[in-house]
Amino acid sequence: MIIDKDIKKYIVFSEDSLLHALEKISNNKMRIVFAVNEVGLLEGIMTDGDFRRWLTKQQDFNLNRPVIEVANRDFLSFPEQTPLTTIEPNFSEKIEHIPLVDDYFRLVGVATRRTPEISIQGRIIDQESPCFIIAEIGNNHNGDAGLAGRLVEAAVDAGADCAKFQLRDLNSLYRTSGAKNRSEDLGTEYTLDLLDKFQLPEKELFTLFDYCHELQIIPMCTPYDLFSLERLENYGLPAYKVASADLTNDHLLQALAATGKPLICSTGMSREREIVHAVDLLHSYGAKYVLLHCNATYPAPFKDVQLGYLSHLREIGRSLVGYSGHERGISVPISAVALGAKVVEKHLTLDKTMEGRDHQASLLPEEFRYMVQGIREVELSLGGPEDGRIISQGELINRESLAKSLVAGRKVPKGTIIGSEVIEVKSPGMGLPPYRRKELIGKKAKRDIPCGDFFYPSDVEDETAIPRNYDFPRSWGIPVRFHDLGRMAGLSNMDFVEFHLSYKDLEVDLKDIFEGRLDLGFTVHSPELFAGDHILDLCSLDPSYWEQSLQEMQRVIDLGKRLQDYLPGTTRPLIITNVGGFSLHAHLPAHKRGPLYERLEEALDQLNTDGVEIIPQTMPPFPWHFGGQRYHNLFVDPNEIASFCEKNQMRICLDVSHSKLACNHFKISFTEFIRLVGPYTAHLHLADASGVDGEGLQINQGEIDFK
Questions:
Q1: Taking 90 as the threshold, does the pLDDT of residue 418 lie above it?
Q2: DSSP one-letter code for 13
Q3: CA distance 349 to 215
Q4: Is residue 68 within 8 Å of residue 15, measured between CB atoms?
Q5: CA 254: distance to chain centroid?
Q6: For residue range 307-341, what is the model confidence (pLDDT) as tens digits?
Q7: How far is Cα 235 from Cα 492, in angstroms, rounded to an integer?
Q8: How much is the pTM?
Q9: How many whole angstroms from its chain centre is CA 262?
């Protein structure tokens, strides 16, 4: 629940037209308006539902009728000082907004059950958004504006959303100030000495804010006093951070809330009753805020972090929550995101040995980058309860390889009743799963089922898909393995087959596969995996690995040439291959992809490709390599594909499923992708796709608009 004090967007006069009220409802996006009389007294409430109900009863409706004729005049309201705990139980599916009134029954606020959210410089933070990550620079610049600039750059490079600083007017903040003062205790004297030495002048600080805007990172600052807040307001920051030390400072908290800017409030050092007091104050001002769980010790012992308090803090604040960490390392803030933190703040430094207590509790740029990466990985892993249990693409691959199927223990002639005695359970999981055994028993075989063949869903279903002939304007074919070529080739009028090879297929005697010549064309799809867990990589910068990949690729090429003796319809076979260039932990930046493309050019020069054509396959951003996901870098970006093909006079295999996933990842037009890559296409792989890694789906089960 939140209290909204911005009541102008809700108010209409009772005599205003329905048309005006509907415009107001549309603009405020809350589906409700409050009708007041000429002296501001609340007279009625109209929701879009009230209007629809009124509309269904009208035979000749008139949108110039006054709002009060439609508004509900029997409504629930509360005095503005009513405790939140009293208001909240009154919300229901029908009641999402409750008016708050003063002693004269004038509207002064609206309590709403709306999911809390804040917006900082256009960046929406809510329950569904990615975590907002703040790099707390504070005074870790040690008074050096140049160092402060480098810290901003480090925050950007690490992936932070915000760079935060601090501003104090020492004369108004402390009863005594200056490094020469000796009247305070040791801790305060030490703090005053550091602040006196290391605080940046206002002009340099504002220049840093400008630099943040230039680098497209949001600047934020913690004002420690009213004078500093006034100066920051004059500059025009989009939001403020409230230090743990000021959560109990009502005077400053009121002034911050009165700005109307979003507030990120740390709760370190505060007792729970003090947090509740601050929440009530913020609610009374209609402030939009996030509460950060925090232990204000530098560095904080892990045993004192008490991260489990986050859920209770969310209940206390009726708000979004986050975490401000001063412990060593990155595991705690990453864990906080798994527990619901939507804002994370950690200190950033370039040198932990510098003077000042914050440096020891700070992260180095590389550590901060790993924290950001960990947070983003956790966010991806969380999903949502509404997603249910979804079998991922990688699991589907492993399910086929590792799971079990129902298979025929002996030959089952067509028309025979299938009994339990002919059913066996064996791997791989390409057929009917074992739990469907009872459905299969007693069914009449619809086909001749050879010994060892799988039972399929079609064997237990009433309708069965059957092969047929097709009429396409292009030559077309299907992927096959050597061992099922004979059976598959006779099922339809295909023009060619595409041999999907395993590394063991490179060792077979083709005479054992082919009884004679076939009137079919063919293409060859190179294996990715070779003996010894060697994954083909013609771009490898490791000389020995690259040499082995060249040798394996040459074996594939040579096999393609030998296949012409058995399928003479193809005069220059296409060899489709994933050329390599994947990485294990993250995608490579553009400047690191260039050398890999050059390495591929070198590999192609080394291979003997006389009589064949090598066509690299367009790749998805997150390919599945034998049940595990990788990051792919080459032949993903359409501009790079077109540039490489143009430079080397090469063609590609356009895998539309892979390329749609790439477009989803890059957030670019698939039509534009095809426009760029289409002219260099020699061969098409057709399948549907979904998301960024849902490849190889049946057509019309994904997102591609094939028509």
A1: yes
A2: E
A3: 18
A4: yes
A5: 36
A6: 999 999 998 888 899 999 999 999 999 999 999 99
A7: 73
A8: 0.66
A9: 24
What is the spatial distance between Cα 690 and Cα 614, in angstroms, rounded to a whole number? 28
Task: List for the chain the helix, strand, coil content (%; round to 5).
Answer: 40, 20, 40
Evaluate whether 11 touches 33 at the Cβ level (below 8 Å).
yes
Token readout for 262 is 């979003």
Task: Determine the Cα angle at 466 with ends 463 and 468, to 5°.
Answer: 145
H-helix or E-strand containing 173? helix 170-173
101 DSSP 8-state letter: E
Amino acid at 106: R
Whether pLDDT at 389 is above 90: no
CB of 460 closer than 8 Å to CB of 439: yes
Extract the tokens encoding 491: 């099922």
Q: Which residue has the tokens 């291959």?
A: 577
- Residue 389 neighbours by CB under 8 Å, 6+ apart: none
- Pairing of the two strands 681-685 and 652-655: parallel
**Single-letter amino acid, residue 16:** D
- DSSP letters, 557-616, are HHHHHHHTTT-TT-SS-EEEE-----BSSSPPPHHHHHHHHHHHHHHHHHS--TT-EEEE
Which tens digits make up the pLDDT trace of 539-581?
Answer: 999 999 999 999 999 999 999 999 999 998 899 999 999 999 9
Residues 656-672, buried b or exposed e (16+ Cβ, 10 A)?
bbbbbbbbbbeeeebee
What are the residues whose beta carbons fall under 8 Å from the beta carbon of 597, sequence distance 6 or more?
Answer: 539, 634, 640, 644
Q: Is the pLDDT at 629 greater than 80, yes or no?
A: no
Which pLDDT score is estimated for 185? 52
- 433 exposed, middle or buried (CB, 10 Å; 0-12, 13-18, 19+)? middle
In terms of Cα–Cα distance, which of 571, 574, 562, 469 is closest to 514?
Answer: 562
Q: Which residues pair with 697 in a beta bridge?
A: 688
Our CA dihedral for 594, 596, 599, 603, rounded to 10 degrees, sits at: -130
Q: Which two tokens stand for residue 677?
A: 């890559």
Say how many C-beta atoms besides its own lie within 10 A of residue 621's C-beta: 20
Q: CB atoms < 10 A from the CB of 470, how many?
A: 9
Integer-rounded Cα Rg, in Å, for the chain is 34
Dihedral angle, C-alpha 278, 284, 288, 292, nearest 10 °: 10
Alpha helices by DSSP H, 161-300: 170-173, 186-198, 202-214, 226-235, 250-258, 272-284
Give the Cα-Cα-Cα angle 369, 373, 374 (nearest 5 degrees).
115
pLDDT digits (tens, 9 = 90+) for 233-291: 999 999 999 999 999 999 999 999 999 999 999 999 999 999 999 998 998 787 899 99
Q: Do 632 and 402 touch, CB atoms closer than 8 A?
A: no
- Per residue in 498-527, pLDDT tens? 999 999 999 999 988 888 888 899 999 999
Contact by Cβ (8 Å): 418, 440? yes
Contact status, residue 434 vs residue 425, Cβ threshold 8 Å: yes
Place of tokens 């760029």: 676
Which one-letter DSSP state was computed for residue 417?
Answer: B
List residues bridging with 500 in a β-sheet: 525
Angle at 534 between CA 529 and CA 539, to 5 degrees: 95
pLDDT reported for residue 186: 47
Q: How far is CA 673 from CA 578, 633, 680, in A?
A: 19, 16, 12
Alpha-carbon span 696 to 699, nearest angstrom: 9
Kindly state the DSSP code that residue 8 receives in the 8-state scheme: G
Beta-ladder partners of 625: 628
